[in-house]
Design brief:
This protein is of the alpha+beta class. It has 2 domains: 3-70, no CATH class; 77-299, Glutaredoxin. Helix content is 51%, strand content 9%. The chain has 10 helices and 6 strands; from the N terminus they run ααβββαβααααααββα. It has helices spanning 3-11, 15-71, 137-156, 176-190, 195-204, 206-210, 216-225, 231-238, 243-255, 285-299, and strands at residues 82-87, 99-102, 126-132, 159-165, 270-273, 276-277. It has a 6-stranded mixed sheet. Helix 4 packs antiparallel against helix 5 (195-204), helix 4 crosses helix 7 and helix 7 (216-225) packs antiparallel against helix 8 (231-238). It is rod-shaped. The protein starts with a helix and ends in an 18-residue tail after the last helix.
């Protein structure tokens, strides 16, 4: 009711009724004010709850995405390893002669099972698979003795090389072995052809990795000196991006090994030649070459065999 009409009606009433009506009107105003305040309080509470839920949903989504990203594997390691092949000097592509190139593949998604590399001994190309823990002295001994020869065979097109970085005795995901393997995964994810150079550099620094370990800055410096300058790799190393994947891939290897006469990974280095594990001296290049030659001859049909690798330890060819 408009105020002026209300006042006019009040003036026409007896004094007693006018006071009673004023009291009732005041009561109604107080009741209306009480309801308004209650309504506003509910609205405020609802807004706070909705806002809090929205914030929590955003935080949960960020956490979920961060956790999920941490469980995704690196690109170009679909088998949990990096696979390298070479182009011999007689290659028809002059730009590819004498080079080692990594196979490319999509990143391993959460819950996705790795795809083992197909082992085809009838193709006439030797398969060399290595499981390497960069803090392990025996792995360094084998690589120091034989890496130049193996990589020479790959360059010449005699062999493929598949490197699996593992952290065999990791306990917390931030140990030197895991962090070194993570660095390899970071490089593989962005610049897979450079993994060989980084692998060699880590082997050369094994003693430091096993003792004091390499800091994030040390690892970044190492891969940079190996020729990898991508900022994404630096970020990946300093955030330990693939540490979960390193742990998972190591567990998979410790559970079972594809294309191997060894059922599971129990020690490093594990070197497989056409699926057969090398158990000889890690520091005897001749013994290893003999094992390679015998295995290759046994597994490869004469009609498809490429020349048996006869590397020169001084040239790696």
């Amino acid at each position: 009711m408009p105020v002026d009409v209300y006042e006019e009606q009040l003036r026409g009433l007896p004094k007693k009724e006018r006071k009673a009506l004023q009291r009732e009107f005041a009561r109604l105003q107080r009741e209306d004010e009480r309801k308004r305040k209650k309504r506003n309080k509910i609205i405020r509470r609802t807004s706070i709850i909705v806002g809090t839920v929205a914030v929590l949903a955003i935080v949960a989504l960020v956490v979920y995405n961060n956790v999920r990203d941490g469980l995704i594997g690196p690109a170009n390691m679909a088998s949990d390893g990096v696979v390298f092949s070479g182009s011999p000097a007689q290659s028809t592509d002059p730009s590819a002669q004498g080079t080692i190139t990594a196979s490319t593949s999509a990143a391993l998604q959460v819950g996705q099972t790795p795809t083992p590399t197909v082992l085809d001994t009838s193709a006439g190309v030797l398969s060399v698979v290595e499981y390497v823990d960069y803090a392990n002295a025996d792995a360094a001994s084998f690589e120091t003795t034989n890496a130049a020869n193996v990589q020479g065979w790959v360059t010449q097109g005699y062999a493929t090389l598949e490197i699996h970085p593992v952290a065999l005795n990791s306990t917390d995901g931030n140990d030197p072995s895991t962090r070194a393997a993570n660095a390899v995964a970071c490089v593989a994810n962005t610049n897979p052809d450079a993994v060989i150079a980084v692998h060699n550099a880590l082997i050369a620094d094994q003693a430091t990795i096993a003792s004091a370990g390499l800091s994030d800055d040390d690892l970044v410096t190492l891969v940079t000196k190996a020729g990898v300058t991508d900022a994404a790799v630096t970020q990946c190393i300093t955030s330990n991006e693939f540490s979960n994947w390193v742990g998972d891939s190591t567990k998979r290897a410790k559970a079972s090994l594809p294309n191997s006469d060894v059922p599971a990974l129990t020690t490093v280095p594990l070197v497989l030649i056409d699926g057969a594990s090398y158990t000889g001296s890690l520091t005897d290049a001749t013994a290893f070459e003999t094992f390679v030659s015998d295995t290759y001859t046994k597994n490869t049909p004469a009609s498809t065999a490429t020349p048996t690798p006869t590397p020169d330890p001084t040239t790696g060819g």
